[in-house]
């Protein structure tokens, strides 16, 4: 015996609308968990590390003030044969230390932006955020002959607004996965232990070459030696981003 079902056209339309709404809602929930879905185009985000099985690590150094620490750190990198590292330079420091900027370029290290004013950009107006990024871009381009495309915000501070403006200015925002906390000056052994114990493939390590960080240059040789002993190769942040998959953190 055959059975035939007659479906009311109006009810069918209602059912399809409800089904579509459920699927759309599921897509939104999925996106809010930090995943990419067809309903949510990828938002601007900051990069903390790269997911890779290769034992590569990016040493990064922020510089905002002083002239006593940068050159010793550059000399250590040269003496240890570390040919790849990334320096995030603030515009005011770069303008007053063009000879050190020139050495960083000559030594072949990557230069990225650390903004202009050393303030929390999330507290600034849209116009002022854009201005800070553009001023730094102009200064670094004039000093190095090359426009940077990576930026680390002062104090690592940002929000969705800052990320969006940085993206509009053709920048990728770089954070870190391992923080040396060298700015706290808690001792050479403490800095070494934090970096070496937390390091992992695809890691971006935050250190400083500003004068307020008085122990970084003393810890750096051992950090390099111990990471090499673990089989790590040193790369720039740009080289790191060429690995398989970057790890981004969603911003609330």
TrEMBL record:
Start and end residues of each NodB homology domain: 55-235
Any single GO CC term annotated in Swiss-Prot or TrEMBL for this entry: membrane
PROSITE patterns given in the database record: NODB
Alphabetical GO biological process terms: carbohydrate metabolic process
Gene3D superfamilies linked: Glycoside hydrolase/deacetylase
Recorded superkingdom: Bacteria
SUPFAM superfamilies named among the record's database cross-references: Glycoside hydrolase/deacetylase
GO molecular function, one term: hydrolase activity, acting on carbon-nitrogen (but not peptide) bonds
InterPro entries: Glyco_hydro/deAcase_b/a-brl (IPR011330), NODB_dom (IPR002509), PdaB-like (IPR014132), Polysacc_deacetylase_ArnD (IPR050248)
Name of the protein this chain belongs to: Polysaccharide deacetylase family sporulation protein PdaB
Source species of the chain: Paenibacillus psychroresistens
């Amino acid at each position: 015996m055959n059975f035939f079902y007659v479906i009311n056209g109006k009810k069918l339309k209602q059912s399809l609308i409800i089904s579509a709404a459920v699927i759309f809602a599921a897509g939104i929930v999925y996106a809010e968990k930090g995943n990419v879905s067809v309903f949510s185009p990828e938002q601007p985000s900051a990069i903390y590390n790269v997911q890779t099985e290769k034992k590569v690590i990016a040493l990064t150094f922020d510089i905002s003030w002083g002239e006593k620490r940068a050159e010793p750190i550059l000399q250590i990198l040269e003496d240890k044969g570390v040919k790849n590292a990334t320096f995030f330079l603030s515009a005011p420091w770069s303008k007053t230390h063009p000879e050190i900027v020139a050495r960083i370029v000559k030594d072949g290290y990557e230069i990225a932006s650390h903004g202009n004013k050393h303030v929390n950009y999330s507290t600034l107006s849209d116009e002022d955020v854009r201005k800070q990024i553009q001023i730094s871009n102009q200064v670094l381009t004039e000093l190095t002959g090359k426009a940077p495309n990576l930026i680390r915000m002062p104090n690592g501070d940002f929000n969705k607004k800052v990320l969006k403006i940085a993206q509009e200015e053709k920048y990728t925002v770089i954070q870190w996965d391992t923080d040396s906390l060298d700015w706290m000056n808690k001792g050479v052994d403490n800095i070494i232990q934090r970096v070496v114990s937390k390091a992992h493939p695809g890691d971006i390590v935050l250190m400083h070459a500003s004068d307020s960080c008085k122990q970084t240059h003393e810890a750096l040789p051992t950090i390099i030696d111990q990471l090499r002993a673990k089989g790590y190769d040193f790369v720039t942040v740009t080289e790191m981003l060429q690995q398989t998959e970057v790890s981004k953190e969603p911003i609330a």
